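Why do we care about 3D structure at all? Because function follows from shape, and shape follows, mostly, from sequence. That is the central idea of this module. The next example makes it concrete: a single protein chain, its amino acid sequence, and then its structure expressed as tokens.
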Amino acid sequence: MNSLPRHIHLSGICGTAMASLAGLLQLQGHRITGSDKAAYPPMSDLLHSLGIPVLEPYAESNLDPAPDLVVIGNALSRGNPEVERVLDDRIPFTSMAALLHEEFLPGRESLVVAGTHGKTTTTSMLAWIYQVAAQENPALDPSFLIGGVAENFGTSFQLRPTRTFILEGDEYDTAFFDKGPKFLHYFPDGLILTHVEFDHADIYADLEAVKTAFKRLVNLVPRRGLIVAYDGNANVTECVSHALCRVERYGFTAEADWRIQNLRHEDSLTRWEVWHDGALWAELEMGLAGEHNALNATAAAALAADRGIPKEAIQAAFASFKSVKRRLEVRAEIGGITIIDDFAHHPTAIRETLRALRSVYPQARLWTVLEPRSNTLRRKVLAADLVESLRLADHVLLAGVYQQQRIPEDERLHPEDIVKALNAAGTAAELCPDVETILHTIVPQLKSGDVVAILSNGGFDGIYEKLPARLRALQMDGKPTA
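And the structure:
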């Protein structure tokens, strides 16, 4: 660990993990600058609040004068002007994951949450459990890095001098010079594995390649460690089958070490029982909806309990847990119309988001506005699964594929085919190439009691602000919605 203050520049600073690392490095006393091609909330807001300047767009001059170290984000590749400047001038450089390990993990207990789905929320839950427990035992006050803004903390990172460091473990590649997954740098002492499905179609050839990455992560957990693994996914079972440490399973089956029973949504709360080794361990409740969030919470509870966190602190943490920004986040309620923002980036995540909304708003007409933006959704490989997930909505508006020219024609998702399949299956769907077309289409049709779920893992051309603004303007004009 280098304790001397340095000037560290982060190229690609607005990524969730990169922005969080920037904050951690600033807390270490380093001078931080950064650059990106486009900044948008919530990370742009976080960086602004920290006083960390963000230069836009990428340029060689952003590295004048030359920093002591450049952290190159995994979205950057050869041809990027800052990458070329670093290589030409031999400015020292590294990756986010490697620097995180070097600066923050030595001498600490690393607790990692990994999986195709649910890792941001589960990491936030685990960190909040430790934070609540620290009220009675300050030694439990956690350091953490989360791939999103945890609303209980108002941030995505925290640094404490205590032993525990809680990390969201991302399977995406590390950098153009390190094509292995970021999570292989984190060497977990305890690991939660939520789901394993085919995702990140831009870097993984197939499901077998995804499973290989997770098997390598499992192989890093020491014999004294623990893996808490979901028992409802055959791929997870395969990935943990050769673990050399203890493995405890969680889920709904009778064989689960941590079994969920009597799950229900009532009085705006989700309640359920957790049975451990055949006996009732605890009754839990929280304000988040959805079966997937009960699973996330149970996984976090299992790892925390194994680490000695009192049951009462775990229960109190869930009772006061808020959420993560852009996970079923209510952005506005206007004239009885509720607008929801969710990061859903994969057909399974979309399905679970819409199922959760059905449980919270059972009588509502559910609109889904989807931007195919993630590297998986922009490809047709999971098109059939996408159709099945979207059928949970009453009405679907599908935007054009984000930067479709960057996806080979034979791999690209064709939104018109999704719309055609949805209409044929009885779900009303329309193709709206851009945000202005979406607004023109949806606003006249919305009425009190409707719920609009906007799904994208990016800024979606400001629709989160534009739709509420359009609805408010109608109210001011005295014009009723449909």
